[in-house]
Amino acid sequence: MVLSSAWIAVMLVGGTWWVRRDITAYARFQTQSDTTERQNLYRRWLVESFLVFVGASVVSLWLAHALWPFEGFPSAFTPANRLLQSDEEVSSDRSLQIGIGLFVGIGLSLAIQWWRLKKSLLPRAGPDQALIPRNRREAILALLLSLNAGFSEELFFRLALPLLLLQVTGSLAVSLVVSALGFGLAHAHYGLKGMLATTAAGALLTVYYLHHGSLMRVMIAHAIIDIIAFFIRPAIGDWMISRKAPMWAVAAS
Fold first, then answer.
1. pLDDT single digits (tens) 97-139
2. pTM, whole model, 2 decimals?
3. Using CA atoms, how far apart are residues 76 and 78, in angstroms rounded to an integer?
4. Which residue in 161, 169, 175, 178 sits closest to 7, CA to CA?
5. Which of 3, 91, 213, 246 could pair covalently with 73 via S-S, beta carbons 3.0-4.6 A apart?
6. Quick check: bond before 69 cis, omega within 30?
7. Distance CA 249, CA 38 (A)
8. Under a CB-based contact definition with an 8 Å cutoff, are residues 152 and 48 in contact?
9. Could you write out the DSSP letters of every residue in 145-186?
C-alpha cells in the first residue's frame, strides 16, 4: 500500500511536468511548417508516449499484483460489467420507444441540408488540426502515433491506473472516474475545449471497455478514432469540397 501510494505520487508529479512540457512542445509544433522538424516531433512523441505509458503500466500492474498472470479484464472490474449488462434488459415497450426514437433521429439526420454537411467537413482550426499529416512520411508517423495511442494509453488509463487506484482507494467508481479525468488531463495540449472533449471520449471508452470486457476491443476503438480524425475525415472533406486527394496521399515528403 505504501509503495503504491508513493508510485501514484511519483506519477502525479512526473505527469504534471510531462504535460506542461507537452503543452509547450505542441504550441511550437502548431507553428512549425518545416516537415523535417514536424517529423522529428512526431518521432519524439511516438517514442516518449510508448515508454511513459507502457513503463508506467508495467510498474502499476506489478504493484497491483496484476502483471502476471496478465488479464485484459480483471475480476475486480466484474461488478461494473454486470451493472452495464443489466441495463440492457429493457422491456418490449421500452424497445419500441427506442426504435421510434432511432427512426426519427435517422430521418432528421437525412434531412440535413447538403451545404451544411459540406460546411461541417471544411478544414477548421481544431485542437488536433496541426497533427493532420501533410505528406506520406508524416502520414506513416501519424498512423504509428494512432496505433500507439490505442495500445499504450488504453493499457494505462483503462487497466493499469484504475487497478492501482482501486488497490489504494478501495473504490472502483473513484478509480474509474479519476482515470478518465487523468486521460483528459494528459491531452491538455489541445486546450480547454480539446481537453474536455478528450475527457468525455475517455469516459465513453471506459464504459465501452467495462461493457464488453475486452481490452483489445477498446484499444482498436481508440486507434480507429484517431485514424478517422487524422486521415479519413480530412480526406473526405478535401474530396467533397475541392475534389482533390489529401496532401498526405500526394506529397512524398
1. 555 555 555 555 555 444 444 555 555 555 667 888 989 999 9
2. 0.83
3. 6
4. 161
5. 213
6. yes
7. 17
8. no
9. HHHHIIIIIHIIIIIIHHHHHHHHH--HHHHHHHHHHHHHHT
